[in-house]
Amino acid sequence: MSMFIVMFKEIIDNLRDRQTVFYALLFGPVLLPLLIGGSLVASFKQMTIDFDEVTTLSVVNANKAPTLIEFLYSKNIDTKEAPENVELSVREGESLVVLEISDDYAHALRNGTPAPLTLHVNNSDKDSTKAARRINAVLNVYEQTISSLRLQHRGIDPTTFDSLNIIQNDVSNEGANGQLLASILPFLFIMSMVMGGFYLAIDATAGERERQSLEPLLSLPLSRTSVVMGKYAATVCFVLLSSVLTAISIYTLFRFFPMEIMGGQVRFDGPSVTRAFLLASPLIPFISAMLITISAITRSTKQAQTYLGILMVIPMAPFFLLQFFNIRSSTASMPLPMLSQYQLLESAVLGDTIPWLHVVLSVTGTLIATAILLFVAAKLYQREKLLD
Predict the structure, then answer these.
(1) Is residue 238 domain-shared with residue 367, that is, in the same domain?
(2) Residues 93, 122: contact at Cβ < 8 Å?
(3) Is 224 part of a structural domain of the chain?
(4) d(C-alpha 291, C-alpha 312), whole Å
(5) Whose CB among 12, 101, 145, 189 lies 3.0–4.6 Å from 61's, allowing a Cys bridge?
(6) Is the pLDDT of residue 213 over 70?
(7) Dist. CA 109–CA 297, nearest whole Å
């Protein structure tokens, strides 16, 4: 009963703190997924070229290359007359790109020499760069077609100059883009958990020590174990709430994500996000215990912020570790808190089959680490130096 009294006291105190509420209920669950997820959506859209989309291209001297214009039209690219000042038009964004056909284009083609084309592009404009990539890709196809026709006209098989026929077969389900996107989900979950309990954990010991409210609390007829467990339970509530809101934010955000880029392999639907949340849930007590333990070591709010700020590197470490090293899910990595959750959540989003043994090992290892941290926190609260 005494533990719940302390818990409700901590919850009420921290709900009055705007900074705690902001980071626990807004920054981690809402703004962080929006910033990271939104930037990913924009990046993938920028990198993806939709060749089925009908676009308009400004062309100088279109009458000099009627066959090329017909080819562009067959590739869903309509042409129009270019403005008088081509460079100014592209620089100011009036035209994304402009294709300029030289006066001797037809003469060069007839003589079998490279026909000059100039593509005016503004590389400081992302839309202009994207449009230029599409035009370049189409022109490369046109160039290969002409080269093949020239060889055939001279009685030469175009494949004569192809020494190798290399076929790359990607056997992965998700591809490179899908793997990167899948790794973002555990990062968002874990970071929101840390942010959810960050300021409450600071206030739990260091903050109360500075306000001189910790000594009256410890002087009450409550065991110190009840006090630390009450503060721990309050932190768990904030971390849990932050995690639930993060799951809702991720599900809502990625409803607007162009999943066709991933070939339909990456899943952010309701069942997948729920599955990911359940797999990440053992981290809720673990992260809460870690935050409370670190807070109990520190002597001031400033020191606690420094220590816990350094602690923020820990949730990021598995993310970068898995990006640079090919660490496969195995029975050896599953007992490790955070690393195993990263791997399990990636598999959940990618729709891979997760062995029950891996889930059991991950939960067991994380809960054992939680118990150790709580034991350390309880011992720290038994010290008389806690009030110094």
Answers:
(1) yes
(2) yes
(3) yes
(4) 10
(5) 101
(6) no
(7) 78
